[in-house]
Amino acid sequence: MKQGRVRARRAVRSGYRCRVGRLIVIEGLDGAGKRTLADGLEAELVRRGNSVARGAFPRYEADIHAALVGEALRSQHGDLGESVYGMAVLNALDRRAAAEGLRADLQSHDVVLLDRYVASNAAYGAARLHQDANGDFVAWVEQLEIERFAVPGPDLQLYLQVPIEVAASRAEHRERTESDRRRDRYESDSSLQQRCGEVYAQLAAKAWWSPWRVIDGVSQVDFADLADSVLAL
Asked: What does it do (predicted)?
């Protein structure tokens, strides 16, 4: 797979130029602050007059595959939750089902902003198997989601990097304050979270599938600078 992706921003069709939006993905551990980052970036982009569409994976309320993922993470469906590849296929099918809608959003918005995407599948599955970003599992995710399912590729992936202790504390606080956000088996496994963070860092370092930008999730984010980077794509 090529590292990075060259994407035409404008195409000539029937005598007019058609703009294609930018697909921006936020990745990070559970409790890293992805939703807060997305809110801040969206606000800055909208302030500048850009239209923004939001999305998040897994789509537990919108897709049957994602619903099964959520249930399996809470010990339903027998040993399904123990199957790394089984859970990854369900997550991949969720994104495949969403692909047409993502393409439509890219045609009608300046920016499409996603909380988690394909890299989450790669990072969590590899971490569960004690592999790194160069292992067989990440290569399998590439073949399945990127090549076979051909889901829309990101223009930029943002890795919100925080210490494992910070992410865990935030996840615990969210569990206490939000009645619908009980932590699942992945979120409660600190060693898995640690390994997952290491794989994310490796994916970012090798510019897996697209350019990446690592953001310090503890320091204050400069949303103006981040928006500049997004709009320059």
From this structure: Phosphorylation of dTMP to form dTDP in both de novo and salvage pathways of dTTP synthesis.
The structure's pTM equals 0.86
Among the residues of the chain, which ranges form H helices? Answer: 34-47, 64-72, 84-108, 118-128, 136-141, 164-177, 190-205, 223-231
Alpha helices in 109-163 (DSSP H): 118-128, 136-141
Kindly report, residue by residue over 9-50, the tens digit of the pLDDT: 433 322 333 458 999 999 999 889 999 999 999 999 999 999
* C-alpha to C-alpha distances, 7 to 4, 30, 146, nearest whole angstrom: 10, 30, 15
Is residue 7 predicted with pLDDT exceeding 60? no
Q: Delimit the domains of the chain by residue range.
A: 10-57+107-231
For 112, other C-beta atoms within 10 Å of its C-beta total: 26
CATH superfamily of domain region 10-57+107-231: P-loop containing nucleotide triphosphate hydrolases (3.40.50.300)
